[in-house]
Amino acid sequence: MWRERILDVAEEHFRRIGYQKTSVADIASCLGMSSANIYRFFPSRAAINKSICGRFIAKATRLADAVARQEAPAHEKLESLFKLLHEERRKNFVEEKPVHDLIVAATAESWPVISAHSAHLVAIIGNIIEEGADAGSFSVIDAAIASRSAMNAFVPFYHPVLVEERVRNAGNAEEGLGEQISFILQALGGNDESRCSRDQQRRPTCPASHEVIRRSGDVPGGTAHLVSKA
């Protein structure tokens, strides 16, 4: 009980004035206890920071899980997922800067909560890709590698520092988002017919189907890439 109360107070302070300006003494004072009592439940100030970051990240995780449970074609679920994740990052920076700042620090220092969140997202994407492959809408050799490649391609629109730069420099964080999502879907070999219909005014022909390289050793540098079959 006390652990959660400490985190509740810490989260309120983090959201209001930021994690860097919040001291253990501030948290203890609000709870009517000494700083020493706080350390009975958390070994360090850093442990509090990481726990609060976990709360912030959990929101995006819940939203992603909800998309994965939707009854919809795989390509629509992936498109919705990527748009939702990007919007969550954009809102963090524009509307909840203290939350954004903590996530930036956690990402830069590779906190375990960030690594776990990224792994969870890759797993969700992999499950959706498998659904699409089973339905015949995606053409991939290895869904696990495809999911990692798709997430890597999406990094410019999800990494908190890169999203911040897009907002500051372009004023429109969504610029290029649709094109990047279309590229990812094309690379997975999905939704060619609907893309042709949507893009026929811009492109005379539909792009060739794509596949994901199965082994990192298949390409120079040892990294999995999205490549065309053509």
Automatic annotation (TrEMBL):
Offer an example of a GO molecular function term for this protein.
DNA-binding transcription factor activity
Residues within the DNA-binding region(s): 23-42
**Taxonomy, superkingdom:** Bacteria
- Keyword Disulfide bond in annotation: no
**What are the alphabetically sorted keywords of the record?**
DNA-binding, Transcription, Transcription regulation
For the HTH tetR-type domain, which residue ranges apply?
1-60
PROSITE patterns found in the cross-reference section: HTH_TETR_2
The record's section on InterPro entries has:
Homeodomain-like_sf (IPR009057), HTH-type_TetR-like_transc_reg (IPR050109), HTH_TetR (IPR001647), TetR_C_27 (IPR041478)
Chain intervals for the UniProt region annotation (Disordered): 194-230
Q: Which Pfam families match?
A: TetR_C_27, TetR_N
Q: Does the keyword Lyase apply?
A: no
Give the residues annotated as coiled coil: none
Query: What PANTHER family does this protein's entry cite?
Result: HTH-TYPE TRANSCRIPTIONAL REGULATOR RUTR, TRANSCRIPTIONAL REGULATORY PROTEIN
Q: What is this protein called?
A: TetR family transcriptional regulator
